[in-house]
Amino acid sequence: MKKYLIIFTICLLGACSSDNIKNNQNTGTIQNSGTLKNKSGTGNEEFGQTKLLKEINYSNLVDKSSQEEIKNALKEAGVDEKEISEFLRNVDTFNKTVENKTLLSTGFAKTNILPAYDEDFIAQKWDEKNKDFKGNNCRITTFGLLKNFINVKNPSNKLDTENLAFDYESIKGGKIFDEKEKKIFDNFFSQIPSPNTQNTSELVKVVQDDWKKKGIEFTNPNAKVISVFLQDSIDEKSKKLFIGHIGVLLPTKDSKFIFIEKLAFQKPYQALKFDSKRDLSDYLMATYDVDTTGESARPFVLENYDLIDGYSANPNTIIKN
Length: 321
Hints:
Elements: H1 2-12, E1 56-59, H2 64-76, H3 81-97, E2 109-111, H4 119-129, H5 138-146, E3 150-152, H6 165-173, H7 179-189, E4 192-193, H8 200-214, E5 216-218, E6 224-232, E7 240-251, E8 257-264, E9 267-274, H9 277-288, E10 300-303, E11 306-307
Antiparallel strand pairs: 1-2, 1-9, 3-5, 4-7, 6-7, 6-10, 7-8, 8-9, 10-11
Helix pairs in contact: 2-3, 3-5
């Protein structure tokens, strides 16, 4: 039952981020606790330890200065002007709709890994003004920015898109993508059959093989797709892999990184600055590697096709016997 609720919240409701991180996450930090083990005791040892990550440097893109900074970073990475403008319009619409409540009002600031938002107020305000439109989530936002750089050469017509039901409501209600774009969206975000294993390397290869079969290509060398894959193990005989969260990674002029994400339909936009890809991976794993049941594989983070540099599991997630 617990596992069902986790998947239902993240997958069916389209909530790209975990609602409450309570599994030893009270301080909002990732702690170095020694050699990591997968939930079964095998499979993830090869990825070593995380380091202590105490805080993130984030913005909700409320002010013009932070928006201009992200706009320039996207332009430098070769993202099309039309898509950048649409993204910033969506950011403005969301922030104004929720009256900037508990959002960072200016620039970037450092805080715990998981910023605190008044989610009830935000959801209420959004629903009051958008009864027939859920808004954009992480998948719609990322695809909207990079849709011209994701190709599918051999699209499949036999796709498991059960996880995209609420995405489709928004895409249809907001008239967001045309039929050609939606076909690419479907092939990229559809669920992938998973073998009965919790070995990260094996699961990464399953995703890579599926994408290669579909002819999925990422053609922008600067703007990278960062995908957090989760394993749905509700049905032990029919496990699935799906993208539970996704965002855009951009390089900066000082050799650091900016990560752009929409937390969920009725959660804020965030732009975050990281010194390394390992820090980004640690942030994402602190958010998504929180299942203590041991029933599913740990999440893993891909940069385009490959496992992100510095990937490791969240040592604060302790499996309950």
